[in-house]
Amino acid sequence: MSLILAKVQAWITYRDTVRELQYLADKELADLGISRSDIKDVARRAAQ
């Protein structure tokens, strides 16, 4: 897989993860052990 393709796929994963987590209610995020301020960090780790 080319480096460019890998970067694009990682970005798509990051974007989709942020979008999905932002739609959750605060209680749902808390049930997952995630605070709203952690969403971008969680998405970054998911994309790696």
From TrEMBL:
It holds the Pfam family YjiS-like. Residues 5-39 form the YjiS-like domain. This is DUF1127 domain-containing protein. It comes from Microvirga aerilata. The lineage of its organism: Bacteria, Pseudomonadati, Pseudomonadota, Alphaproteobacteria, Hyphomicrobiales.
